[in-house]
Structure formats: C-alpha cells, structure tokens
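Page 37, continued from 36.
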C-alpha cells in the first residue's frame, strides 16, 4: 500500500490533490525542481538578441547538467518520499551552493535562489499532527479545574495576625477591583503604617 492510497482514501475526488499536497513538502519540491531547470539549461542554451546569438556554453557543461538533473530528482524525491525530506533539503542546498562556480553563477542566480529556498523549506517542513478524534464521554464533561476556579470555596478562611480566622467574602462587580488595590489581603484591614 502506498502513501498516496492511505492519505487519500475516503476523500472526495476534488480534494485528493489538496490532501496529497498537504502531506508532503510540496512547495519545497516545486522550488527545487524550478531551480534545477536554469542550472541545467543555461550552459547548453543560446540567447538571441535581435540578429546576435549569444552562446552561454561553458567548459563545465556536464557538471551543470548533473547538478540540474540531481536538483530535479531531489524535488521529485521530496514529493514522493517525504520521509527523506531532510536529506533531500540538505543535498539541494549543497548542490545550489556548488552550482555557483560550476553553472554560470548558479543559473544566473535564479536557479541558485530557487534551489536554496526549496532546500531550506524541505528541511524546515514537518508533517501536521494527526487530527484528534473527540471521545463521547470527555466531550460532554466539563473540566474540573475550570469549574473549581469559577466557584469560590465557601469554607475558605484567612488567618489574621492575632491568630483568629475570618471567612473570605468574595467581592463582585466594579467595587471588587477597587477593593483589591486599597485593602490588604490580611482580613480586610487597612494598613495605616
């Protein structure tokens, strides 16, 4: 059974590509493949400016072709084998750096930039956590901590300096915030010095 069949089983036909794209570093693979094209093409290509043909062939054409093909292969590996995304990303970054001296400044910096960004995105990508299935019992129950924090303890007491205890009376409304700033917590007595 392949990763595509398990990820897209039970998904409507319209959403299969979206599910497939979200379960792997899709954009990292795409940027890496886009970066491999100018790196592989430019040492063999010609540019025409009007009647003038500009040959961009270099002596390291074979090395540039190998780097470009490897970058395209690494981009496809990111798509179809997402478990090796970190290796593919690091290899894409190294090949992008090697393409600077080998392939016309990394495919006129365009291929270098795309391969570098794609490799970095592949290293940084992490799969989404699996969705949690709500349990029937826990969905209906309220958490005990939230309920206890909302209701004050009717048996709470504070200890005063003379050793007696006084019940805590919870204050409500706008007077509560003013009282909290002007009265100490020692049984509600003002401290006048």
């Amino acid at each position: 059974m392949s990763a595509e069949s398990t990820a897209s089983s039970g998904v409507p036909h319209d959403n299969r590509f979206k599910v497939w794209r979200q379960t792997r570093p899709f954009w990292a693979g795409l940027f890496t493949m886009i970066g491999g094209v100018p790196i592989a093409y430019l040492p063999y290509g010609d540019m025409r400016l009007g009647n003038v043909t500009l040959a961009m062939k270099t002596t390291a054409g074979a090395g540039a072709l190998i780097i470009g093909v490897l970058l395209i292969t690494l981009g496809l590996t990111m798509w179809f084998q997402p478990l090796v995304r970190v290796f593919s990303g690091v290899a894409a970054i190294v090949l992008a750096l090697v393409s600077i001296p080998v392939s016309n400044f990394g495919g006129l910096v365009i291929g270098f930039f795309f391969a570098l960004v794609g490799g970095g995105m592949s290293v940084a990508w992490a799969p989404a956590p699996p969705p949690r299935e709500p349990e029937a019992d826990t969905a209906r129950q309220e958490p005990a901590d939230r309920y206890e924090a909302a209701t004050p303890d009717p048996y709470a007491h504070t200890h005063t300096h003379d050793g007696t205890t006084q019940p805590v009376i919870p204050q409500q409304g706008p007077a509560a915030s003013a009282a909290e700033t002007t009265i100490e917590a020692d049984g509600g007595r003002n401290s006048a010095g």
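Strands lie at 46-49, 52-55, 157-159, 165-167. Flag for discussion at group meeting. The first helix runs from residue 3 to 7.
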